[in-house]
Design brief:
alpha+beta; Sulfite Oxidase, Chain A, domain 2; 30% strand; binds ligand MTE; binds molybdenum atom
Length: 205
């Protein structure tokens, strides 16, 4: 007899996650991995792909796919919290730390915010100091597999401590600014910062 019902033990895992203090308020646990985004899944062409760093940096940069792939890679396991109230724990990501990318361009002292840029004009704003955490990665892999296109492959940003709309799929670069410039969802009613532990879901909350 299985101990768990046919939800693969989801309820038991959720109870444990709550007891361990790993589930932010108002979130429920998912053991699957939903696909969520606005618009279509962009087509990837390695010969045309580039990653651009601009704004308040010492050296504006444009990295080609091969150059980005050659940056030092690390693994980091972290949790993922979507504002639509699901969380997925213990995701094993492999990719390049934000800090290892930024190092090549060097932030100017007045840079305080980033606007992260993706395919099809998707953007998200994040304070620069939040991106300097060691678990913030540009990820190529999830749980040992190359990131599928629907989950943001070939490359997505992962910012575990903020709601997942900040974990920009199909990322193509970022711009550093001295002020906060709202991104796509942030202009459409989501919170400018988005701390899941404070339930900063919508602007004004
Ligand atoms: N480029 C882009 N990135 C995006 C989004 C989007 O619409 N476009 N949606 C965000 C939202 S709201 C969530 S919850 C996560 C979902 O990632 P997943 O589909 O891999 O679960 O991607 C985020 N990154
Ligand atoms: Mo989301």
């Amino acid at each position: 007899m299985p101990i768990f019902g046919d939800d693969g033990g989801r309820r038991a895992k959720e109870k444990q996650a709550k007891a361990d203090g790993r589930l932010p308020p108002g979130q429920s646990l998912t053991v699957k991995w939903p696909v969520l985004h606005y618009g279509g899944v962009p087509h990837f062409d390695a010969t045309k792909w580039d990653f651009k760093i601009s704004g308040l940096v010492e050296t504006a940069l444009r990295l080609r796919w091969e150059e980005f792939r050659a940056l030092p890679q690390v693994e980091s396991t972290s949790d993922f919290h979507c504002v639509t109230r699901w969380s997925r724990l213990d995701n094993r990501w492999k990719g390049v730390r934000f800090t290892d990318v930024l190092e090549r361009a060097k932030a100017k002292p007045e840079a305080e915010y980033a606007l992260v840029l993706a395919e099809e004009g998707y953007t998200s704003n994040i304070p620069l100091k939040d991106l300097l955490r060691p678990d913030v990665l540009f990820a190529f892999e999830h749980d040992g597999e190359p990131l599928t296109a629907e989950h943001g492959g070939p490359l997505r940003l992962i910012v575990p401590h903020l709601y997942a709309w900040k974990s920009v799929k199909w990322v193509r670069g970022f711009m550093l600014l001295d002020h906060d410039r709202l991104g796509f969802w942030e202009r459409n009613g989501y919170h400018a910062y988005g701390d899941p532990w404070k339930e900063q879901r919508y602007s004004g909350s």
